[in-house]
Amino acid sequence: MKNIHITLSDTNYTEREKTDLELEVGQFELLKKMIQKIESGLYEQRAAYIGIKGLLKDPVILTVTEFEQA
């Protein structure tokens, strides 16, 4: 199992929400590859879109316009 920590911050980088997720190693590697593709794609495009289905009643789309490593 791999543990990842996810935070939601506002435009002032103030943390508003946070959660930890336990992922199987295979799931962790798939998520890691997706994040790496977002990082490399943002150098070529202005935004990337993450679609999430099955979590809420309707699908959710998150827009990523910047990639930083903290």
Order of helices and strands: EEHEE
Q: Give the total of beta strands.
A: 4
- Rounded mean pLDDT score: 91
Sheet of most strands: 2 strands, antiparallel
Shape: globular
Domain count, please report it: 1
Low-confidence runs of at least 5 consecutive residues: none
**Which class of secondary structure composition applies to the elements?**
alpha+beta
Strand neighbour order, sheet with most strands: 1-2
> Fraction of residues in helices?
25-40%
The percent range for strand residues is 35-45%
Give the CA-CA distance, first to last residue. 23 Å
Continuous helix count? 1
* Rg over CA atoms: 13 Å
3D structure, described in words:
The longest helix has 18 residues. It contains 1 helix and 4 strands, in the order E-E-H-E-E. A two-stranded antiparallel ribbon has the order 1-2. The chain has a two-stranded antiparallel sheet with strand order 3-4. A hairpin with a 5-residue loop joins strand 1 and strand 2. It is α+β, with helices and mostly antiparallel strands. The protein has one domain. Helix content is 26%, strand content 39%.
